[in-house]
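User: Can you predict the 3D structure for this chain?
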Amino acid sequence: MQIQEQVTERGDAIDLMVNMGPQHPSTHGVFRLVIWVDGEKIARSESHIGYLHRGSEKLCEGEQYGQIITLFDRLDYVANLNGELAICMAVEKLMEVEVPERAEYIRVILCELNRIASHMMFYGVYGLDAGAMTPVLYGFRERERIQALFESVTGARMMHNYIRIGGVNEDLPDDFGPRMNTLLDHLERGVEECDELLSQNEMFLARTKGIGAISAEEAIDLGVTGPPLRACGVPEDVRVSEPYSIYDRFDFGIPVGSQGDCWDRYYVRVEEMRQSLGIIKQVMRDMPEGEIAANVRRIARPPKGEVYIRTESPRGDFGVFLVSDGSDKPYRVKVRAPSFCNLQALQAMLRDAYIADAVLVLGSIDIVLGEVDR
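Assistant: Here is the predicted structure, written as C-alpha cells:
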C-alpha cells in the first residue's frame, strides 16, 4: 500500500490517500482501489480497472463461432462452463437449434458443479481475507474433487472448451454415475463442515455483520445482480425469473439475505451450494439417454440478425449480445459481465466504513477481473 497525504495551501492536512493495488493480494487480481481516509474512516473511494484488458469482445470478431468458446473460458475463469454455455446459447437461439435432451442435462450438471466450485473458492479466500487460514484448506479440498471430475469429463481442469453449439463435445465417461454419487456425498459433508467452521465464528461475525451494507433499492439502481443482490433481500435469479435450458423442470429455492451486508453476501453463497447440490441430484435422477449434440455444421453460419441471452453465473446476471452478418464469424459480441456491474456498488459499500474493512467489503462482491476488464 502507498499512502499519500494531501495538504492544503495553509498547510493543514486533509484526507489521506491510500493506494491499494494493483499488486496487492487482497484485490484478488490486478485491481487498484484508491481510498481517501479521514482518520480510520473511509471518506471516499475510487476503483481503477483495465489492467487485464485483452480485447476479448473485439477478438471474437476475428474468430469462427466454434473458436469463440475458448475466449469465453477466459472471461470468468473461475466459472468457465457457465461462460461457454452463454455464448453457445446465443448462437443456438440465432440459428434456432434445438439442443438434445441429454446434452441439456449434462450442461446443467456441469454448470451447477462449476457454481459450487466457484463458491468454494470464494469461501476459502474470503476466510483468508478475514484472517483465517483453515477455510481455504476446506474450500480447496472440495473444489479439487470437482476439478478432478471435470478433468475426467472434459479433459481439462479449467479451460474446458467442452460445451458446443448444439450440445456438448462428447458423452460422459462410463464411470460418471458412480463417481458423481461419491462426489455428491463428499460435497454435502464438505458444505456442512465449511458452514460449521466459519459462518457462526465469533470473530468472523464481528468482521462481517453490518459491514458494507447497501439497501435493495440502491443495489438495483447500481445494476447489482447475483448473490450481492439476493443478499439485500431481492429474490432475483435468472434461472427462475427467465428460465433457460431445462432449469424450469427442477425444484430449488433462491437464498436471500436481509441486511445486504458482508455476512449476508457470504452466507447466500453457502446456501446456494446446497441448492445446487439439490439440482444436481434431480438431474442425475431424470437424465435420459440419447444424442449429445444436434445435427449442425461444424463451421456455424447463423442467419443475419441479433440476439441477447441471459444466464445466471455464480457472480450474477451474465448476458451476451450477439450480432450476425451471415458469415462464419460474428459481426459484434458484447458481454454483460456481472462482476463489472457489481463492482459499481463498491463505492456505496465502502462509504463510512473503516479502512480495516475495505478488504472484506471488496472480497464479499467476489469479482473476477477476467470478466471485469475483458
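DSSP finds 15 helices and nine strands in the chain. The longest helix spans residues 101-129.
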